[in-house]
Every structure is written in C-alpha cells, then in structure tokens.
User: What shape does this take?
Amino acid sequence: MTDLSSDILAGLDAEQRQAATAHTGPVCILAGAGTGKTRAITHRIAYGVQTGVYDPHRTLALTFTARAAAEMRTRLRDLGAHGVQARTFHSAALRQLQYFWPQAVGGAVPELVDHKVNMLAEAARRLRTTTDRAALRDLAGEIEWAKVSMRTPDSYAAAAAGRQMPSGWDANGVARLFQGYEDVKTDRNLIDFEDVLLIMVGILETEPKIAAQIRDQYRVFIVDEYQDVSPLQHRLLDLWLGGRTELCVVGDASQTIYSFTGATSRFLLDFRQKYPDATLVKLVRDYRSTPEIVDLANRLLAERTRQRVPVPGPDGTRGPMPRWAEPLELLSQREHGPAPVFAECTDDEAEAGWVAAQVKQLLAEGIQAAEIAVLFRTNGQSQALESACTAAGISYQLRGGERFFSRREVREGILQLRAAARSAQDVVGGEVPGRVKDVLASLGYADEAPKVSGATREKWESLNALVALSEELASTRGDQFTLTDLVAELDERAASQHAPTVQGITLASLHSAKGLEWDAVFLVGLSEGLMPISFADTQEDIDEERRLLYVGITRARLRLFLSWTLARGTGGRSTRKPSRFLDSLDPEADTRHGAQAGGRQGQGRRRPGSSGAGGSGGRGAGRKRTHPVQCRTCGKTLETGAERKTGRCLDCPPTYDEGLFENLKAWRLTTSQAASMPAFVIFTDATLVAIAEAAPKSPSELLRIPGVGSSKLEKYGQDVLELVNGIPSA
Assistant: This one.
C-alpha cells in the first residue's frame, strides 16, 4: 500500500474503513445521520483511484442536489481523485442528452423549462379552467410525481387513486391538465427536468450503440441518498449499469422524507434481494450530535420499529422492512451535553417570543448566529418567528424559498460588482469589502440591518451575505484578492448553487433542512395537526412525518429545543395538543417540573415530558416538582438526564453487579430475537444499567426507573424482576 493510499484511510473508523475498501461487486452502505457517509464514500472513491481499482474518468458519483455534488467534487479534488464525475441524476442525464441528441433524435436540443407554472397556466386556459398560482404550484408538484413515477396522462388517474389532490381538483381533472401541459411543451419545443430522464431512458432502451457507448464510459457508479431514488431515476440507473454490478449505494431508510415527490426507500430495502451477494456496511457512529440528542432520535425510531409498519413499494404494494435494514441505533461519539429542552407555550406569538429569548441567550453564550436554526413544518409558520426575530434585533435568513442566486437583488448585485471590477484593479486585499459595500449601497445595502421583517429585510440579508463573503475571502486570500476574484467566486458558486453563509440564524422548513446541521436547533410547532400534519391520514403518511421529525432532531449538534403551542392566536381557545411523537421522547415524566420557559409575558411553560408509555406527562397544577438528584457514589448533584437515569456521575465507577448486567443483556437479546425486533426497542443499554444499579425488588420500584414505563412493565416486568432477584424462570 502506498503512503498516499494509507493517508486516505487514516482517520476513518472501522466501519468507514470497511466501506472505503469494499471496491468490487455491489455494496450497500447504511449510513445513519451524522455518521460521516460523505467522508466514507469520497475516501472510498479516492482509495479506489489511488490503488488503481477505479479509472477516475470512468467513475460516476450521483447525488440529489447540486450543492451536494459540488461538495463531493471538492472533497475528491482534495483527496487527489481528479477526473471523477460527481453530478445529480438530472445533470448527468442532461449532459448525455445534449451530446447524443443529434445522433438519436436530430436537430437542436429543445429548450429546458425551469418552472412549470407558466406552462400549466396556459394549459388551464386552453381547457377553459381558471386557478390561482398557489394551486398551480401544487399541480406542478403532482405532475412531477406522475412523471418520476413513470405515469402518463392516460395512466395517471388510476395510479393516483387515494392521493391527496390539489384543492378543487380530482384525478381526472389533473390528468386532463397533465395532457394539456404536455401539449403546450410540444407546441413550443420545450422539455422539463423529468423529460430529460424520460428521454434518456427511451434512448438507452432503443439505441443499443448509444447504450454501449455510455456503459463503456462509466464502469463504476456510486449513488448517495439512495433512499430518495424515484422509480424513474432507478430505471435510468439500471440502464446505465446494463446488468453490471459495480454499484455502491448509500442511504438511510429512516431519512426518507420525500415520498410525496415520488421517492421511495423500497429500492434501498430491496437491494440485498436484488443483489444477494452484496457487501453490507452499517455506519452507526454519530459524530455530529451529543449522546442526549442521539438518544432522543433513537427513541423516536424505536417506537416506529415497535409498530412494525409495512413499507410501501414503488408499485404501491406493501411489504415488511427487511431486518437488516431496520432503523439504525446510533452511537454518539461526542461528549455529553445539555438535555433537550421541551417547552409548551400558550400560542404562536408566545412561542416565537420564547424562541427569540432563547436565541439571545445562546448568542450571549458565544454560539454564532449562523450555527442556530429554527425549523418548522409549514412555511406559514415563519411569519411569527420573523416578527419576533426582528423585534429582538436578531438577524435571520429564510431558507427554502427562492434560490439565493435567483434573487433579483443578488443578480443585480453581481452585475454591478462585475462592472465595478473593470475599473477597480488597484483595489486589493482588505480594501475589497469596502468597495463592495459602496457598490451595493445603491441597491439598498447599509451597515445596519433594517428594523422591519418581510421583503425589505430579506433583501438586506442577501446583500449582506455578499459583503460577508467578500470579507471572508479578503481575510483568507490576502493582498492578492481583487474584486475580479470575488466575481469569479460568485460565478462559480452560482453554477453549483453554493450560496454564501448569511450572518444570521436560519429559519427553514424541516424538508429544506435535510443535509444540513447546526450547533443549536429549535423544532417549533410540535402540535397535532402540524406534526404530524393534519392531512397525514394513513399509516404511511404518519410514518413519514415521524421520519421528518427524526431528520429535524438529528440536525442538532449540541443544543436541541422542542416546543408546541396550546392555541394558534393570542387569546384563542386552548384546543391544540402536543404531538403524539413527543410521548416517546421524554423519559423523565415523573420528575420534570413545570418551570416557566419564557415566551410572551412568561406564558411559555417547560413541559415535564412523558414516560414513553403513552401518557401526556400532565400539565398544570398537578405536576410533580423536581428535587436535586445526587450521585450515589460521590454525592455530587447530577446534571444530565443520562446521569439521573443511572443515579451516578458518568465518570464515577459503576455500582452494579456486572454479572447481573450481562444476564439482563442476554435476556434482552433472546427476547428481541423472539419478537423479531432490535434489542434496544426492549430496553436501551442505559435503562439496563439503571435497572442493574437500582436492583428493584418490586414492580413499583421497577416502574420508577426512567425508560421502563407501565407498558414495558406489563410486558417484561416479571422476567426482569426474576433476573434481578435471582429467581429461576419456570
């Protein structure tokens, strides 16, 4: 092994190294949130190139966003793997389509439609139907689902049976509009993004010479986020492979949150059925989040596993989740941190005010604004948060709306900076940011942020991001940095949609937060009707909402806040209830007190939590109050939930019988295997330690141990008590 190839493997953990060195045949990497999957697959590619197993020019890495592809290319360059293509499915297919169009079809390649809404509006007019722009956006999403599911206007209505239709439309009406949309595109010689994939599928199926040429070009495929593959993308991938097996897929079924767009985890779950000899690697070491946050995420999925919900396939049939692909139990590799905070607020305004107050405290503690995010289920929830941030003087960016480089002020700003660069060759280094500020002042930039929310504030935040990028580059590149260099950097970033960091907290929907992470995360609006969303009326929908909350939880590195409201508006009736998902997340229902959590006029309340046995945890005057818990070994007051669960400091020696603990683990393994469920669903290791520490003599003593609860007491209490008290099983 060369020194360089050894360097590539250096620093990888055992599982990452296994993934990086598994180079031949089909490979499936199950990678939990925060487990370093991008690191594993880029090192896998680089190691393959360095050892000569892969020809970099015949290797194609596929992912789902231009930003992720750009990040992968950067990492591969840094690892010396030059020449490897890292693209989205659409980018790779479009490049092939443009190259082979003259040979396969002839003439000029049709123009690509960026947005469907205008075409749909014309199709609606032709059908003498009127609809608003919001409905047109929903219809565009429905047609995208149909096309990636490989449905035509003729087959759409039958395939869409049971789907939630856009307001005012039924399946037959959508099918007619779908056909009208296709007619408008044909009349104008236009294609959309889904057409790019569909046309390439058609070419590969009917043009064997072109198929052979593409298969000769690309011999090795690596697919990231494989749980998000649509039937259309999977069909294209199969055609690219042409029956070969040099395929590595990376994914996590627990992070499938785009089923409404046609994505399905079934291809990931069926991978080992399709490739029985596939190498399987599981990445479970979480390097992102603290043990307290990871424990919360594990418990959320443990409840899903306990329910054993069948998984829908791409053809609409439902089948069991393969045991090898059941939710991964993550193992945090970080130091312990603060316990997640649960807060109940009277209404949305109170919740937003409480969030703003907590953010101010985090900023005072030294956490950077760019490392704080507030995540919500629907975009309509952002207004109260924007107003609260503005009132508190907190800068923010609203993510998930219009793309940064598509914003008018950004496009105009780059144009003006490009013009200014022609006459500013003598402006270098630290002088560049000042010139940038002068140029952008004509578009509305000022050193101080405006004291209003909405469009004015968003415009300023965009311009301020350009200023901040100039300051960052001037600092890192030194005296040689010029305005021309800044424009070139912006052009490169615009091509890959790599937006600069806005110096403010992030407000974003849960869906748009996928793939990102922050030091501190607020998950707001965790009420029934919002999480899960009100129109989630099937088990598959509820399960997807659970996965969406899981994604939200696992975005946080150090601090996590979960909040909900009892009413929507100020003074409204308290008709809301906390999300059902919260029932399994708080192991300290009997000890967490109802201390105030701030909010508008102190009306937010800290939630005591729930036992995981289905209880709400109780709110109001009947709550129990927390008393300080001391370590049974050294007497020190215990700070974290994990310490309070075991009754001792984490660095104090255990006081339990190790033989008892091993017997409990052996019993748990046997019980889990008999019930066909992961062992941690029975009891986590921390709960078994707590049981061994406490050595309960009776059901009431066992019930007092966090993580047990009445449901588990009923199922497993007798077995556990017999083990603890040395009573042989009958």
Remarks:
- Residues 142 and 261 are 8 Å apart (CA to CA).
- Confidence is low (pLDDT under 50) at residues 588-627.
- The longest strand covers residues 556-565.
- The first helix runs from residue 3 to 9.
